[in-house]
Specification:
- The complex is a heterodimer.
- By secondary structure, chain A is an all-alpha fold.
- Chain A has helices at 10-19, 25-43, 62-75, 89-97, 105-121, 133-143, 147-161, 173-178, 192-195.
- Chain A has one domain (17-181).
- The longest helix of chain A is centred in the first third of the chain and has 19 residues, at 25-43.
- By secondary structure, chain B is an alpha/beta fold.
- Helix content of chain B is 22%, strand content 17%.
- Chain B is built from 11 helices and 16 strands.
- Chain B has helices spanning 21-32, 55-60, 119-123, 138-153, 180-191, 237-242, 294-301, 376-382, 392-399, 444-463, 527-546, and strands at 12-17, 37-40, 73-76, 196-198, 247-250, 254-260, 266-272, 278-288, 327-333, 346-350, 366-371, 404-411, 420-428, 434-439, 468-471, 510-512.
- In chain B, helix 1 (21-32) runs parallel beside helix 11 and helix 5 (180-191) crosses helix 10.
- Classes of the chains: A mainly alpha, B alpha/beta.
- The interface between A and B is large, with 50 and 56 residues.
Chain lengths: 207, 550
């Protein structure tokens, strides 16, 4: 880690202050619990449990979680159907890197730091998570071949489409987006084209 | 379910290493023939209630396959490279449970065609390869293919394909209900004058031999069957072997060495039990059916003064000629929903391009099938080809999941000495046994065959009326679930490991039968042939034993 990245470092603090960027990493870190709770609350308006149920981060710092969640959201954006945010992909990633994918964690953390450093060196905005969507997309286009991006892509998809018991795919949001139903039995017809199939007609003879 | 048990100190007639596609068949056949049999399986025994719809666990966390943390492997493209452990998972993937990889297979049960066995004679040599004829013919194997279809249980429609090899009997069950992908493949193929037909699948389409028909849950490929419709040895051969009262399936038993006496006869096998205690099972004869990766590894790790290069390896062929089966994909999206995530992977295939044709300028051939492709996560990660891999366009493609299908080309892979399984000089597994090292580089003709079938699949999908089609990426092999050729059969002890009856050329009471016995790769669906070989091997081994010729 470069000394200028140390928390409390004068030059970095000066930069943050002079950049006029309110949504700094430090600010986000301080505000994370309420951001998370608000997001959680917004995504399950029909769930009475409300804000206090926001999962606790285990692997990421709050600031890192904001950055990674922003990357996830650009990989699978929200729209008419759920994106990474509604599926809670960030919670899946946080949990996976602190448990069954812990072998990937050291490289992932190093990759994230490199990603953040590269973003900061080319932007006036303090963190990737605080940048506009347009700026995020432009930056991601320059790093989407890196191992960090590849890992984040894999983890985002897992966080959207793996079983909800792992902390992502919240309320099956990813499966709904895809049009997939997890059932233990189906009966034919399965789709449009087999419904209209009229039966196998044998071929006349060997060609 | 448990049958008779034996003490390791009891000398049984046969110890069989591996309980998968081949081991399960051999155990059933030999125990039904009156012999005492102990089957040693390195993994646990699971039942239908243990299997889950959990893609993360099964596809990314080695749910029922070898855990790379405990059983690591290394990979390199050629001998000039230092082999390294892959970042995620192992190169050679096989299920580590009773039933072996037959418990998690897709169930595509294609017979080989007649020319698979004598293609070298038909086409001539191919420089730089180990392209060779088999020492047996299709006609010799045909009765055993029929036995697989009836005893293990295959659904299909006989003679539906004009290219089918001759058969003495039809299938015992009708084909599984057609899916939209199958209907579309057939529609496109018929427009082009091709011949798609109902896929033969080792999945019960109706109640059969005590097992229910498929519930169409969609979790076949890489998963265990929750309703026992999949015709894995776990649900078919193994219970029947146990019912004889002469066969024990001993799970959590990891064999690491075959023992020899001074006369060069196998005396049994050393294995680690569930508590990592070293045990020794005595047997009059040893049958290895541990798959095309573990069988050669076991032989190469069983060195002795007599066999310093590994047991049964006087030819030097143990571990060599590894073949994976190349493949290619065409993705297609249609106007209406297909819902391919429902039911079995494949309901229609075509064999119009099965034969190699020298006019194409390369060796190879194969089949094309219509399928759903991987489960949601795998599909979302791998089915894009050159299309955008993130962002709004990527999301749009994901939203088209239910309207999408894959037409897959299943291809030959040429046998090459330089593609092989060896023992890693440095790495050991969690039990202290030297780990497996894979060296593999696709032959240019394997890629050419894959591309040829991809071109044909693209034409078929367009003829079927796809709104959008795109090619899957070129797949440079880094591993496989098809583990073939590593103890090839042949008449010449100098160039092959087992004879035409699966007896090791070097050790009279050692038999080897699994994917390692293959001489050529077939066209991408090896399991029915593995099982036909196993029925045939067991038939001959039983006769040898009765005649006291072991």
């Amino acid at each position: 880690m470069n000394s200028s990245d140390q928390p409390g470092d004068i030059s970095r603090r000066s930069f943050l202050l002079t950049s006029g960027e309110l949504l700094s990493a430090a600010w986000v870190a301080a505000q994370w619990p309420s951001i998370a709770a608000a997001a959680h609350h917004a995504e399950q308006a029909d769930v009475a449990a409300g804000a206090e149920a926001a999962p606790r981060l285990q692997f990421f710092s709050a600031a890192d979680a904001v950055d990674v969640a922003a990357v996830c959201q650009q990989i699978v954006p929200s729209g008419a159907t759920a994106g990474a945010r509604e599926a809670h992909a960030i919670y899946f990633i946080d949990r996976s890197l602190s448990s069954y994918f812990s072998a990937l964690a050291p490289d992932y953390r190093a990759g994230l730091e490199e990603f953040q450093g590269r973003f900061r060196s080319g932007s006036k905005i303090a963190s990737f998570g605080a940048a506009s969507s347009e700026e995020q997309i432009a930056f991601l286009s320059t790093v989407d071949q890196t191992p960090f991006f590849e890992s984040t892509r894999m983890l985002t998809v897992l966080g959207m489409l793996a079983s909800p018991k792992y902390g992502g795919n919240y309320l099956g949001a990813g499966w709904k987006m895809l049009g997939f139903a997890d059932q233990h039995a189906f009966a034919p017809p399965f789709g449009y084209y087999d419904r209209e199939y009229t039966g196998f007609v044998p071929y006349p003879a060997k060609p | 379910m448990a049958g008779r048990t034996f003490k390791p100190s009891e000398t049984v007639d046969f110890v069989v290493v591996g309980s998968g596609a081949a081991g399960g068949v051999i155990a059933r056949e030999l125990s039904q023939a009156g012999f005492s049999v102990v089957v040693l399986e390195q993994g646990p025994r699971l039942g239908p209630g243990d299997f889950e719809h959990d893609e993360l666990k099964y596809s990314y966390l080695s749910g029922i396959t070898c855990d790379p943390k405990l059983s690591p492997q290394t990979f390199r493209e050629d001998a000039s490279q230092v082999a390294r452990r892959p970042a995620l998972g192992n190169s050679l993937v096989y299920a580590r449970i009773v039933g072996g990889s037959s418990a998690h297979f897709t169930g595509n049960f294609w017979r080989f065609h007649e020319n698979d066995f004598n293609e070298r004679s038909l086409l001539g040599p191919i420089a730089g390869t180990g392209f060779a004829d088999w020492p047996i013919s299709y006609q010799e194997l045909e009765p055993y293919y029929t036995k697989v279809e009836w005893d293990v249980g295959v659904s299909g429609l006989a003679d539906a394909s004009p290219f089918d090899p001759p058969r003495t009997k039809g299938y015992p069950m009708p084909p599984l209900p057609v899916k939209s992908s199958g209907a579309l493949l057939e529609k496109g193929a018929r427009k082009l004058g091709l011949h798609a037909f109902p896929a033969p699948m080792a999945i019960a389409s109706q109640f059969y031999r005590g097992r229910p028909g498929c519930a169409h849950c969609g979790f076949c490929i890489g998963f265990g069957c929750e309703v026992m419709a999949k015709s894995t040895t776990l649900y078919t051969m193994i219970p029947e072997a146990e019912a004889t009262g002469r066969c024990e399936i001993r799970s959590h038993s990891y064999v690491h060495q075959v023992a020899l006496d001074k006369q060069g006869r196998a005396t049994g096998v050393h294995y680690f039990d569930q508590h990592a205690r070293d045990q020794f099972q005595k047997a009059k004869a040893v049958v290895l059916a541990a798959n095309g990766a573990e069988t050669p590894r076991l032989l190469l790790n069983s060195t002795s003064a007599r066999f310093p290069q590994g047991l049964g390896n006087s030819s030097g062929a143990v571990g060599k000629y590894l073949m994976f089966n190349q493949s290619s994909q065409v993705h297609a999206q249609f106007e209406h929903e297909l819902n391919e995530y429902k039911s079995v992977q494949v309901t229609r295939i075509l064999h119009d391009f099965y034969d190699a044709d020298p006019k194409r300028g390369f060796y190879g051939g194969g089949g094309i099938d219509a399928r759903m492709g991987p489960q949601p996560v795998g599909w979302a990660l791998t089915s894009g080809g050159e299309l955008p891999r993130w962002g709004a366009e990527y999301k749009q493609r994901l939203e088209g999941f239910a309207r999408s299908m894959v037409a897959t080309g299943h291809c030959t892979s040429l046998a090459m000495e330089t593609n092989n399984v060896t023992i890693d000089p440095d790495l050991k597994d969690a039990w202290g046994i030297p780990a497996l090292r894979v060296t593999y580089k696709d032959h240019p003709d394997d890629f050419a065959t894959a591309k040829f079938l991809q071109d044909r699949a693209l034409e078929i999908m367009q003829a079927a009326g796809a709104q959008k089609t795109w090619r899957g990426g070129r797949r440079v092999s880094r591993g496989s679930v098809h583990l073939l050729g590593t103890c090839r059969m042949g008449n010449d002890p100098k160039s092959s490991v087992v004879d035409k009856y699966h007896r090791a050329h070097d050790v009279r009471n050692l038999f080897i039968c699994d994917g390692s016995s293959f001489v050529t790769s077939g066209r991408g669906q090896p399991t029915e042939t593995i099982q036909a070989l196993a029925f045939r091997a067991a038939d001959h081994i039983g006769q040898f034993a009765k005649r006291n010729e072991i």
